[in-house]
Amino acid sequence: QVQVVESGGGLVQAGGYLRLSCVASGNIFSIIAIGWYRQAPGKQRELIANISSGGITNYADSVKGRFTILRDNAKNTVYLQMNSLNSEDTAVYYCNVQGRMRTLRDYNAWGQGTQVTVSP
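and the corresponding structure tokens:
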């Protein structure tokens, strides 16, 4: 199995920054893509940033220019640097990791989420 753990959430004032981490571990042969999602109260979970094995990144318009996704392949870790935070960024942030296990079965694993709260 593959485990995904997010960390780095917390309470921050508007205009501030946070850096989230996502670590994948377990029966990993390869990681194809990692995505950061968020879900605000009463809203659907949305994809805000992802990065491919080749380092290609994509961002939702709502975070483009403020958030940066970074990948450390050696550590199976992805970071989400979030700058210029505002109240609309308040949500639970989830990491999703997709790839192949050593058994050559594909996996699609989610973390438990980390809360980000931006105060006015």
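(Above: one complete record from the training split.) The mean pLDDT is 96.
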